[in-house]
From TrEMBL:
Its EC number is 2.3.1.200. GO terms for molecular function: ligase activity; lipoyl(octanoyl) transferase activity; lipoyltransferase activity. The record marks 161 as: Lowers pKa of active site Cys. InterPro entries: aa-tRNA-synth_II/BPL/LPL, BPL_LPL_catalytic, LipL, Octanoyltrans_LipM/LipL. Belongs to the octanoyltransferase LipL family. It holds the Pfam family LplA-B_cat. This is Lipoyl-[GcvH]:protein N-lipoyltransferase. The gene is lipL. It catalyses: N(6)-[(R)-lipoyl]-L-lysyl-[glycine-cleavage complex H protein] + L-lysyl-[lipoyl-carrier protein] = L-lysyl-[glycine-cleavage complex H protein] + N(6)-[(R)-lipoyl]-L-lysyl-[lipoyl-carrier protein]. The reaction proceeds via a thioester-linked acyl-enzyme intermediate. Catalyzes the amidotransfer (transamidation) of the lipoyl moiety from lipoyl-GcvH to the lipoyl domain of the E2 subunit of lipoate-dependent enzymes. Takes part in a pathway for scavenging of lipoic acid. Residues 44-229 form the BPL/LPL catalytic domain. It comes from Listeria fleischmannii 1991. It comes from the Bacteria. Keywords: Acyltransferase, Ligase, Transferase.
Length: 277
């Protein structure tokens, strides 16, 4: 599915591989990395970048989750279950991160007339369709009600959600982020988030809507496609798909200038987490 009119078609794509879980590199550092990249890519100092990242046993909550009346009890429940809890700076509600969840960020410059929000989502949808086009399955984008972190661009096969997309916009850069449930026990993940919302008192307030999480509307790509997919398998698919669109695709690490700036954005998100947690 090679499309001419797509944000995937860039003169250069840089790939950052952070898919090996590392206790010294947590989810907050991941979100700070995307903020750093937004600054440099939005300023057209660095090229458009795709970043793959994986973290062990973390629940990433959204801003709206902080409105839960008994959030502290919910966080304690997650921590006692062995999960680190972080507050991210992109949209959406609580999601689970673990070794079988691949996260991908597409960071692009928001130049000229700007990138419409839906266009960012559609770009990620196109990329995922491309990556798995050899399977005889249709990947649709629409809200899967009663999934965790429901949104209008949930990705699903036969009504079963396996991925969710969010965006972060700052410093003239756009980070389109997706989590892909590749394997593992999606039922357990769904039950974890369902319990988190119950314990956090989602029904004790009426101002905000939180999902009644149903594990039966969620699944993994491995189950939906009938194939055993590892993080490495899917990263290879990611790179093969991008090669069709990129004038040049190369692997790299953060530049020295980006590394010097990263601590500033990390300090910001750590401070935000201190206020909430």
């Amino acid at each position: 599915m090679i499309l001419e009119d797509t944000l995937l078609r860039q003169e250069k794509w840089r790939f950052l591989d952070q898919t090996t879980p590392n206790k010294a590199f947590d989810a907050l550092q991941s979100y700070a990395t995307d903020d750093t990249l937004c600054r440099f890519i939005g300023g057209e100092i660095s090229p458009p970048t795709v970043r793959g990242w994986v973290h062990e046993k973390t629940v990433s909550i959204g801003i709206q989750d902080t409105k839960l009346p008994k959030l502290k009890e919910g966080i304690q429940f997650l921590q006692e279950a062995g999960y680190r809890v972080v507050l991210r700076n992109s949209g959406g509600l609580a999601v689970v991160l673990d070794k079988d969840i691949l996260n991908v960020s597409l960071i692009l410059p928001d130049v000229k007339k700007g990138i419409a929000i839906n266009r960012g989502y559609e770009t990620m949808h196109t990329l995922i369709q491309d990556m798995f086009s050899d399977f005889n399955q249709v990947i649709k984008a629409y809200e899967i009600e009663n999934s965790y972190c429901p949104g209008s661009y949930d990705l699903s096969i036969d009504g079963k959600k396996f991925a969710g997309i969010s965006q972060r916009r700052m410093e003239k850069g756009v980070a389109v982020q997706i989590y892909l449930g590749l394997g593992g026990n999606q039922g357990e993940r769904a039950e974890l988030i369902r319990s988190f919302y119950e314990i956090s008192g989602k029904d004790l307030q009426e101002k905000y809507h939180f999902p009644n999480v149903d594990k039966n509307v969620m699944s993994t790509l491995s189950l939906l496609l009938g194939a055993s997919l590892t993080v490495n398998d899917v990263v290879l698919r990611l790179l093969n798909s991008l090669r069709f669109y990129a004038g040049e695709l190369y692997s790299s690490t953060l530049t020295a200038e980006e590394l010097d700036t990263l601590p500033k954005y990390y300090a910001r998100i750590v401070e935000r987490n201190k206020k909430i947690m």
